[in-house]
């Protein structure tokens, strides 16, 4: 997890909070990471504003979906189910997203080298 944090912070030139999961849940950092690795891979990112500092669940979901779409377009293999108890209709969990981020970072490093 520390390597993931370090990689994201160094690429995006940001300091992430101690709780990495909560900083990725709204999808903003994920979308910026995708755009850093492949410019314009995420066309629209919903970001909090001073007037509305917390995104709605719908906007968070759109961000995460945009990130996942960008991963697919770039060619990152999709991870459907990581746990045998997962229901086929379950929404992507944070674990799924973190695994995709790890795959995404690994894929991008292999493309750059």
From TrEMBL:
Record InterPro entries: CH_dom (IPR001715), CH_dom_sf (IPR036872)
SMART domains registered for this protein in UniProt: CH
Pfam families: CH
SUPFAM superfamilies: Calponin-homology domain, CH-domain
Domain Calponin-homology (CH): 1-109
Domain of life the protein comes from: Eukaryota
Full protein name: Calponin-homology (CH) domain-containing protein
Lineage: Eukaryota, Metazoa, Chordata, Craniata, Vertebrata
């Amino acid at each position: 997890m520390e390597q993931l944090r370090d990689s994201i912070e160094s690429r995006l030139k940001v300091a992430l909070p101690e709780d990495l999961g909560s900083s990725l849940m709204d999808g903003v950092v994920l979308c910026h990471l995708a755009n850093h690795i492949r410019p314009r891979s995420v066309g629209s990112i919903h970001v909090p504003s001073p007037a509305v500092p917390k995104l709605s669940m719908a906007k968070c979901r759109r961000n995460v979906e945009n990130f996942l779409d960008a991963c697919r377009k770039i060619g990152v293999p999709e991870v459907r189910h990581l746990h045998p108890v997962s229901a086929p209709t379950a929404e992507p969990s944070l674990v799924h997203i973190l695994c995709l981020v790890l795959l995404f970072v690994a894929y991008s490093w292999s493309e750059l080298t």
